Amino acid sequence: MSAAPLEASSVELDTREAIHARVISAGTSFYWAMRLLPEDRREAMFAVYAFCREIDDIADSDDPAAAKLVALALWRDEIAAIYAGRPRTPLAHVLAEIAQRYHLRREDFLALIDGMEMDAREAVRAPSLEVFDLYCDRVASAVGRLSVRIFGAESAAADRVAHSLGRALQMTNILRDLAEDGARGRLYLPRELLIAHGIHATDPAVVLCHPELSAVCEALAERAEQRFAEVPAAMAQCPRRAMRPAAVMGAVYHALLLRLRRRGWRDLDRPVELPKAVKLWLALRYGLL
After folding, report:
1. Which residue from 44, 100, 125, 189 has the least number of CB within 10 angstroms?
2. Are 124 and 135 within 8 A, CB to CB?
3. Strand, coil or helix: what is 12?
4. C-alpha dihedral over 69, 70, 72, 76, to 10 degrees?
């Protein structure tokens, strides 16, 4: 059951409007799933998304690594202030309200910052599978663990959905953004998969032109498929209505993964996107189950 909306000050209303505008302008696929939520839960998800964008923008900035780590440390302090009941920034005030209302866990916010710090310290290049999985947990599954609580599911099964679906979504993002990440000097393809296909380089410019790149990408796509396949069993143990946004996100990203595989891994600069009509159809199909 959704909590009754709290009376908001003009500053809070301005902050919420700014959050909403940022979500809309980003054109994120999450928006289609979030539209299924009641207004209070939808606004809470928008605030979490805005937090994610704030720290992601820090990690992706052109600032020196030391400056990025300082900025992320300030957000770590802000999370501590939120849970101490003393939020300081406008966004933190909104996060403090929803953290209390939906029982969001501090460690999940901190995991997200940990993930951004992995990007901020240096360009990630061919991490081990262990580090790769940790990265996916921090930057994606942690968002899922926050999200399912806002959706209205706090069970271990809901966390299992977040665990598997978050990883599936992140692997899909990595496969979609190979060229963009490579331009930033980043290469998230796991080292073991590269070596298994005879690629020992870690320079993105070399790896992304290697003749065996397609085999590596297909191997990672198969791992993403395995994670997608884990979701239904966990989802079946959750409140169906509450988890409809997660079902929509899974459908949208799985459709994106299939399109990426159909395009192939030679023409990485050719973008792969789902048309709005397809997103809307998937939202209707999976959101009305």
Report:
1. 100
2. yes
3. helix
4. 120
Q: Residue 18: what residue type?
A: A
Q: First vs last Cα of the chain: how many Å apart?
A: 19
- pLDDT tens profile 20-60: 666 666 556 677 677 778 989 999 999 998 899 999 999 99
Res 11 pLDDT > 50: no
- Displacement of CA 198 from its chain's centroid (Å): 30
Q: How far apart are CA 175 and CA 54, in angstroms?
A: 23
Residue 223, Cβ neighbours under 10 Å: how many? 18
Q: What is the pTM of this model?
A: 0.90
19-39 residues labelled b (16+ CB within 10 A) or e (exposed): beeebeeeeebbbbbbebbee
- Whether 152 shows a pLDDT value over 90: the answer reads yes
Distance CA 206, CA 181 (A): 13
> Does pLDDT of 280 surpass 90?
no
CA-CA distance, 89 to 287, in Å (whole number)?
A: 34
Give the pLDDT score at 105.
98
Domain with CATH 1.10.600.10 in the chain: 10-113, 122-289
Tokens 């690594």 sit on residue: 65
Over residues 11-24, the mean pLDDT reads 63
DSSP letter at 1 equals -
**Average pLDDT across the chain, whole number:** 90
Would you say 221 and 170 are in contact if contact means Cβ atoms under 8 Å apart?
no
CATH class of 122-289: mainly alpha
For residue 258, give every residue at least 6 positions away whose Cβ sits within 8 Å of its Cβ, in sequence order, or none. Answer: none
Q: What is the DSSP string of 61-122?
A: SSS-HHHHHHHHHHHHHHHHHHHTT---SHHHHHHHHHHHHTT--HHHHHHHHHHHHHHHHS
